[in-house]
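Aerotaxis receptor (Aeoliella mucimassa), 470 aa
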Amino acid sequence: MEKARVTPVNEERFFEPHELFFSLTDPKGVIRYGNDVFTRIAAYDEAELIGAPHNIIRHPDMPRAAFKLLWDYLQSDRTIAAYVKNMAKDGRYYWVVATAMPCKGGYLSVRLKPSSPLFEVVQKMYHRTLQVEKQCEEETGNRKLAIERGVKHLLAEVKAAGFDSYESFMSEMLAAELSSRAELLRASGYTAKRSIDSSGRRGIRQLESTCRLIGTMIGKLFKSVDDFRRLEKQLAAKYDDIQKLGMTLHLLSINASIAASRLGSQGAVLGAVADALSDMSKQMEVSINHRASRLGPLQEACGKLVFGIAVAMFEAEVACDFAIELQTSTDTCHNATVLESLDAMVDEFENRCRDVIVGMRASGEEISRTRREVRELVNRFIEMKAIQINGKAEAANSGANSEFSVIFDEVAKLVDKGRDDSDQLLTVLIACTDRVREFDKLSLSFEFELDALQKSLAMVNEDRLQLAAV
């Protein structure tokens, strides 16, 4: 289908925060299904959308780099979340937070209304990226090169905003958007849609009930997201600080040894203190470097876990809305289309939830190991504090020069800073451990309900066949 020529109008198409979009495409991005919210806000008839490329709603204000990223993720079998400005058939615009992922037979996307502070930041990023693309294309006449420069610029913007990677950004963004949306819905007194009494559709009612129950469990899990986000952020920062601190302590111990050697036999005790400090700082460096080499995987696991939980929470609500849409629809053909999409949605939702279970357990094991190692660091700082105090006292008793006093005062500051950093990290690790333990209590029920999803879906198909036969 040829894309309709639409002139942009600088006017927004309004939709409510509780409304969620859903669409399903084939591997080439051709629309196979769009839910009622999608068709209404896009202002196209369903017949106009089905069979059309998804870029039928592309807004010219969107940098092509954003779509290049999207397709790169999807074609490498990864889920992506991004802000997208769309254009309706009447030329008006509407912004969404889009989460797109591979599914059976193509790709599916679920979308919500953006409301977090990050939204404004990203709009400015997109504007600057679009200017980079336009300038490059004007200068070179090469659109492909312009898009490549746009991607490079956009990722640089993401880093400049304080994110290590696009993965880190979208994990933070989606969690922030879902939290912001939940707060808006609470403030407005919104009540989620519920099923109706639809005779002959027991499968749909069962499916909705199961999805809602799983959604409640994921909602409890989502409350732990802030702890995992804090851990992801603090891991690298705190370990980097402690690593630098360990190196400085080692240098100070060398300075103390040199100063003690100048005193000859009178500096023997201070030399022993300096040696003890040196040994301890070396051990600490080895321990910190060993742990630092494994920080990347733990940070990545925390980021993926936060993102997975957020997407699963999002999908649970969409699946419930789907079930209700099926209950209120009387068109058998339309039901068949929705059922195909529902099957793809439920399959993705189940896989996502099972990935969350695996991720929680794997993260829990790694968090426990890290927690033990940080406790060991705390103990080493306590030992170093004792060495520092002894050194300070010996320097005073022996009448040694002020050089020792300065060295041991500096050691005290560094040890106190290291202990404080370790305690802060330990606090976050303990909180995450508690969240994992809370999840463990839910996990059996969680897996039981996930097993029930496919059974409910089978019942939905049985009901459809029975209704069609009537």
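The longest helix spans residues 402-469. The beta strands are 21-25, 31-34, 80-87, 93-103, 106-112. ok done for today
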